[in-house]
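Ticket opened by: R.M.
Priority: normal
Category: complex prediction / small molecule

The reporter submitted a protein together with S-adenosylmethionine and asked that the result be attached to this ticket for the collaborator who will pick it up next week. Submitted input follows.
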Amino acid sequence: MRKLEQLALSIQHYFQSKGKYRLHSDLAYRLYTEVHNEQNVAFSDHWNSTWSEDLSSYKKTDFGTGKDQRPIDVVKHKKAASTKLEVQRLHNLVTFCKASNALELGGHFGRGTFAIGNALSHEGTSITSIEGCPKTIEIAKVYLNAGGLCNYTILEGSFTNILKDLVKANKSYDLVYIDGHHTAEALLDLIPICHSLLNEKGVIAVDDIFWSYEVHSAWRKSIQRIKPWASFEFLNFGYMFFDPKGLNQQFFKLW
Ligand SMILES: C[S@@+](CC[C@H](N)C(=O)[O-])C[C@H]1O[C@@H](n2cnc3c(N)ncnc32)[C@H](O)[C@@H]1O
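Result attached by the on-call engineer:
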């Protein structure tokens, strides 16, 4: 059923969206060309190397129903990670936003963490990733250390609990990437907290906005509530850009 919803949302999006030649906004054109279409700085990772071959299966702490406790095969579970194209886009996005520090919700085995951290490779920059499952974190560390990434921190716990701690500690980020807990309720709760953790010209990126009708409408509701300066639906990714100049609000659907 969810697959059908995703297909319907994607088809609808295709017919309502614009390609790069019909864009009159500088930001939209640059997002299109510099983040989604082109490989500004070609990025490749060690995801398909041998790093995961000897890791044994494990029971994952599940944030869904919590009922399915079958052992997970690490190599098979790599499928839940971002794809090669998605991590290239994340890598581009960090450069595009001129971000110095980023926060990721949903670390999994660290593929997105690595892409963001790698783009943040100059001094004083860092990526913080939140992941609820401790055993998944152990595997992520194997992957990230195999790639020699040094500027990362993984925080263990549920998104909401860790975000509350980050707010209390007065943390702030240039880029927040939400990639986990794909329910409408979670998204409606998470986006305002992430917004409160953003620096002035910060950006929120959300993966899987077409997860289901409910998730998509929660994403749209969040745009209405938070009122970013510009928001984009770009294939499966949603973006909110904030700028203190308070220019007229804009909304784009891009393909
Ligand atoms: C789709 S995966 C993330 C993929 C990763 N960002 C990447 O780029 O490869 C989602 C991860 O979020 C974690 N997760 C989901 N809901 C969570 C929650 N409420 N609190 C903490 N972790 C959660 C899951 O355990 C899972 O590992």
